[in-house]
């Protein structure tokens, strides 16, 4: 009988066996990880790839930035600097998947908690810091600037990055300071490319300054100040290094040493760290008020945003919502542009009057100031709103001093101005005679009046209370007081329209005219006009006055010329400051602040 053919084995068990053997040889063969689409990330912020499942196969990850590959089922990685990087998932030499990522600098405001009340920042170091440091060094002197900057948190590391060579600082990211509502102190932050190396560099700088730095296992460090004070905290988070600096403690009680206070660690610094590490999303960068105000201000090198909360009881007196300002530095000048946002019109709905003094003054002041505010708004600024507790307390305090402040404020028209003149001839006369410099010149102040009697009473009381010897002259509607303060003659003149004070040398030989118009032409923005609070200091005018003296009574031409050369050289060595001005005026939705500082040409 013929035998039956043997049945062929099923191919399925054999396939499973071969597959199992294959997986044992290479757990990734045939696996294609999903790395997601091409996308944009921020430098310093970790991105996760792969799987976290317990039995997921291991994969070799090449992040494309020169760092060593890692083999694990999943990996998290942060790119230190901006650029385009190709991330590859590898099985040995075989590429399983890839994705191209664009890494951009992490904006400094995204590293600041969203509830920060005040932030001062440089958005990008490269192209901004060099000009700021150069301008500051010229303004105050290189030595003074360096000493100040070296004492500023994180600034030494930033300054070292300006020199040639590798640095832990990221020039494409930012630097700044911020205040938090529940932290009594300031927090500094700086964008870096290597957080570990940057922390070590800052620790070295702090130790070299005499501070005690105590590293922790998590990479942060406690810093005890050399001269007393609460402990600081140094830490890093997502591409930024932070230094939380608490306010110094109050003066010690008798028998208590400052050093004893220094070793107490402030719990506030840990609160700062928790706040930073819990930060997600845009931080303060998308604050609605910041965005609103930023559109009202020109661009700059360094910015300031402040929106501290105002207690409900004080909102009537302080309707300010917030402030945004930008400082632009170009060569030998710095321009300030800012906007103060308000929930109601600032300084009243009507403008204060322009100063009458500025319209008929002697030419050539070296400094000028004007306050043009409606009287009730001035009272609100000084004392608070009508019937407010602050106004009542202030008025009561004045009454105890024998002054009735309400009638005094109502007597003011709303314009106050001051002009300062330099008398170069009198200066050289005293300098040559006494062999030492002594300021000489004249200060003129004037306030418009609606009623003279309250001001007259105040002046008489102040002269009597200070035991000053004075002469009083009255003629018609004019009353004049003459006395001396700090060896300088002082004259106070009252008329029904204005109160005028002149102190110092007698102004002679100067042309008179509309000084306010001259200042507005020079500084623009309607500075020194109605409704404006304006200030100007002009060192260039002072230099011109010194150089313009041709003769001094009782002084030979040779001595005068030698003194001029010496004083001019000394002044140029002391400061390159040429002139500066600041102007604030009400605007729709608040008020605009503008300013300028100009240095002498190199």
UniProtKB/TrEMBL annotation:
One Pfam entry for this protein is PKD
> Taxonomically, which superkingdom?
Bacteria
InterPro entries reported in the protein's UniProt record: Ig-like_fold (IPR013783), PKD_dom (IPR000601), PKD_dom_sf (IPR035986)
- Transmembrane feature ranges: none
Residue ranges of domain PKD in the record: 50-88
What name does this protein carry? Answer: PKD domain-containing protein
